[in-house]
Specification:
Blueprint (H helix, E strand, L loop, with lengths): L3 E7 L2 E3 L6 E5 L5 E8 L2 E3 L6 E5 L5 E8 L2 E3 L4 E2 L4 E2 L4 E3 L8 E8 L2 E3 L6 E3 L3 E7 L2 E3 L4 E5 L5 E3 L2 E3 L3 E4 L7 E2 L19
Parallel strand pairs: 1-4, 2-5, 3-6, 4-7, 5-8, 6-11, 7-12, 8-13, 11-14, 12-15, 13-16, 14-17, 15-18, 16-19, 17-20, 18-21
Antiparallel strand pairs: 9-10
Length: 194
């Protein structure tokens, strides 16, 4: 298949969809997906993950994606007709049909709030995924689930989740703030009622 590359999604909103809010997926069409940027996007109240990345082809790779200043909140479990999604804020490989590699992703100043499952979830087929200065709050599952290889939460905060950090095989995967202070973008929280 043909590679898909070099797309920018800026100031977009996905709300109350019947499946995932934003969905990047390889099945049998693309050989790879790379160089995607999501910036200042909001996913809320979708029936699936807020932001879902899924690789259904073991011979393909999804890589080099950036999520910057995005908010994912109040997403619920659902399906796209092929895979089941648990309602993660950012579900990276978490869809039930994921088999391929997902690597070199970065989340900068992103927020996951009040989702039906994990705030940020990276599965075993992911590598070199970093959450930097991100905040995960009041999710039903884990704030940051760091399965996979060389995945890190750097300067991130988690509070009010069922578990704040999980899947951590090496303590250096969770790197705290070097100095106390407010999270960038804390004012971007939206009312969680309704």
């Amino acid at each position: 298949g043909t590679p898909i590359a070099d797309f920018i999604f800026k100031a977009c909103c996905a709300q109350s969809n019947g499946a995932n809010g934003f969905f990047v997926s390889i099945d049998s069409i693309a050989s790879s997906i790379f160089q995607l940027l999501f910036e200042d996007c909001v996913a809320q109240k979708n029936r699936g993950d807020g932001f879902a990345v899924l690789n259904r082809n073991a011979a393909s790779v999804i890589q080099n994606m950036v999520f910057r200043n995005c908010v994912s909140q109040r997403n619920m479990s659902g399906s796209d007709g092929l895979a089941t999604f648990q309602g993660d804020g950012y579900g990276i490989g978490t869809g039930s049909t994921n088999v391929g590699l997902i690597r070199d992703l970065i989340f900068e100043d992103c927020i996951a709030q009040a989702n039906a499952h994990d705030g940020f979830s990276f599965v075993a087929t992911t590598s070199v995924v970093q959450a930097v200065n991100c905040f995960s709050m009041n999710n039903t599952g884990t704030g940051f689930h760091l399965a996979g290889t060389s995945n890190y939460a750097i300067g991130c905060m988690a509070t009010g989740n069922a578990f704040d950090f999980a899947g951590v095989s090496d303590p250096t995967q969770v790197i705290p703030y070097s100095t106390p202070g407010a999270i960038n973008g804390i004012g971007r929280f939206v009312n969680v009622s309704g």
